[in-house]
Amino acid sequence: MIEHFDVVIIGAGASGLFCAFNTALYGKSVLVLDHANKAGKKILMSGGGRCNFINTHVESDHFVGQNTHFVKSALSRYTSEDFIKLVESHGIAYHNKGQGELFCDESSKDILAMLLTECDNAGVSIRLNTHINTITPNCHHLADNQGFHLVVTPKQGLAYQVHCRYLIVATGGLSIPTLGATGFGYQIATQFGHKIVPTAPSLVPFTFTDEVGKMAKLLSGISLDVVAFNDKASFSLPMLFTHRGLSGPAMLQLSNYWQAGEPIYINLLPNIDATKLLLSTKNTRPKQLIRTVFAPYFPKKLLTAIQAQFWHSLAETELANIKDKKLVQIGECLNAWKIKPAGTEGYRVAEVTLGGVNTADVSGKSMQSRLCQNLYFIGEVLDVTGHLGGFNFAWAWASGYVCAESIGMR
Ligand code: FDA
Nearest C-alpha to atom 11 of ligand 1 is from which residue? Predict the structure, then answer.
């Protein structure tokens, strides 16, 4: 026996669930398949358990990927206001954390419950614990595709067949395999001739194997406001020393713009020209030590570590006896500390995955494949990565919405 659905969505995560009920609202029969034992695991983990479900300022420059214009159409057609209205219609209390990041007052569970209620109301079927064995297009030529034939096996039960006219791949990225992440979406994309932009863990802390690593371990738990930058991006946010390296929002954001082997720069005194301060203090208070100049700006433990890093041999030397050239060098280090991460903490802890299905072969208006009719890709499986701050969910909702609209209108 073969079961028939208008639409099969692979992945019961943020984009899959959102797309599912929006498609079903057009009167389509929708089946969502997921190999995990629970839907929306990443939603539950998100925002430290409070789900940063959207940002009020969603613009295309909050996204990285080979084609940054790709996101524009979807983001303009499903906006933050649209999602906020949905959240409010479910009576979910939320707050703005400051920069437009909206979090649930209570729990991420509220957002997942909202999505599952909408799916339930729209008559979506969700089957978890289901392994997808094979996917075959139901046609002789991909351009004439009349649908897809899937063979699936439930964890407890026998394999069965499903036919659908539209197939939506919503399998997410590779981050946090223990939450169900796999590369299956890339495998499906490749099967249908799509190219994959090389993937890397992102929104992830940096690790160090050099002196910086030792320093970070020593300072583990200390946080300070910095500007973290490289030649592609700059973020003025807190940085956190950890026993493995450097984390905090500044580092996570910069990881979206970092490639293995590249250096990064940290301005440890974002509001102060450290060179100017040293040279002027040398004039006005020549007997001062460098650490006394910077004492007001750093916790004591951090100041001691910075001293060991930047002016160890001059620790007890008065400013008057230090050459201007050396003071300029120290000042520059404080305002643009150049460090080279050994790597990142990897997919085990990364919030997202850089790279993915190349958007050159996907329509930005509908998320439909340009290579195979009726095949769609939504959410993080695509080469679209958002900044920290609710942008990745913004993409999951918007891409899911335009996909649903495109199928619904047909
Ligand atoms: P998502 O990962 O949500 O769903 C993919 C689904 O596909 C999963 O249910 C998975 O089990 C399923 N799947 C995978 N392989 C399969 C296979 N072989 N067979 C069947 N099913 C398969 N973003 C944000 O905007 N605000 C935030 O607060 C956070 N916080 C956050 C915290 C943590 C710890 C993480 C890991 C991530 C975040 N994110 C976030 C990112 C956000 O969770 C992510 O971008 C979206 O969930 C992506 O939605 P998708 O639907 O694309 O994938």
Answer: 180
Residue of 7, 32, 23 whose CA lies nearest to 132: 32
Number of H helices, E strands in the chain: 13, 21
User: Could you tell me the two tokens for 379?
Assistant: 């959410």
Instruction: Give the pLDDT score at 31.
Output: 98
Question: Which pair of tokens denotes residue 237?
Answer: 């946010």
Strand partners, 390: none
Gap from CA of 183 to ligand 1 centroid (Å): 12
Q: CA angle, corner 358, sides to 355 and 362, nearest 5?
A: 135
Task: State if residue 385 touches ligand 1 by the CB under 6 angstroms criterion.
Answer: no
Q: Express each pLDDT in 170-227 by its tens digit.
A: 999 999 999 999 999 999 999 999 999 999 999 999 999 999 999 999 999 999 999 9
- In angstroms, rounded to a whole number, what is the distance separating the alpha carbons of residues 368 and 166? 10
What domains are there in the chain, each with its CATH number?
A: 2-201+351-408 (3.50.50.60), 206-345 (2.40.30.10)
pTM over 0.90: yes
- At 11 the three-state DSSP class reads coil
| Ligand 1 touching residue 169 (CB < 6 A) | no
> Which of 392, 399, 401, 403 to mutate to test ligand 1, by most ligand atoms within 8 A of the CB atom?
392
Asked if residues 268 and 306 have their Cβ atoms less than 8 Å apart, the reply is: yes
- Report CA Rg, the chain: 25
The answer, yes or no, to whether any atom of ligand 1 lies below 6 A from the CB of 36, is yes
Q: Say what percent of the chain tops pLDDT 90.
A: 96
DSSP helix/strand/coil, 23: helix
**Token representation of residue 335:** 């305002």
Q: How far is ligand 1, taken at its centre, from the CA of residue 315, in Å?
A: 49
Q: What residue type is assigned to position 169 of the chain?
A: V
What region, left, alpha or beta, does residue 259 occupy, with left being phi > 0 and alpha being psi -120 to 50 degrees? beta
Q: Tell me the Ramachandran region of residue 58: left when phi exceeds 0, alpha when psi lies from -120 to 50, beta otherwise.
A: beta
